[in-house]
Design a protein that fits this description.
Blueprint: H1 2-16, H2 22-44, H3 48-65
Helix pairs in contact: 1-2
């Protein structure tokens, strides 16, 4: 990321010193604007570590909300009968 920011600084210095012809300045300016927008977007984007930490927090929250499953058999019998005979 620092290399890209350095590119933007070099671009600005080159323009100030007249390294580009007038016809090239529109393309150079457009490239600079896209690069700066990219850098701002990367600053706002969460890092891999932040995403992993968020995932771990979510898993912990979900694990706390899941009721424990009992290994005991049910104590109530099923009372519904189903007629499986065919006419």
């Amino acid at each position: 990321m620092n290399d890209i920011a350095t590119f933007v600084a070099i671009n600005d210095t080159s323009v100030k010193r007249g390294a580009f012809e007038g016809a090239e300045l529109e393309a150079i300016g457009s490239l600079k604007n896209r690069t700066v927008a990219f850098l701002k977007g990367m600053e706002a984007a969460p890092t891999v570590e932040e995403e992993e930490a968020k995932e771990i927090r979510i898993r912990k929250m979900v694990a706390c909300d899941v009721p424990a499953i009992s290994a005991r058999p049910a104590t109530t019998a099923l009372t519904t009968k189903v007629d499986l005979t065919f006419p």
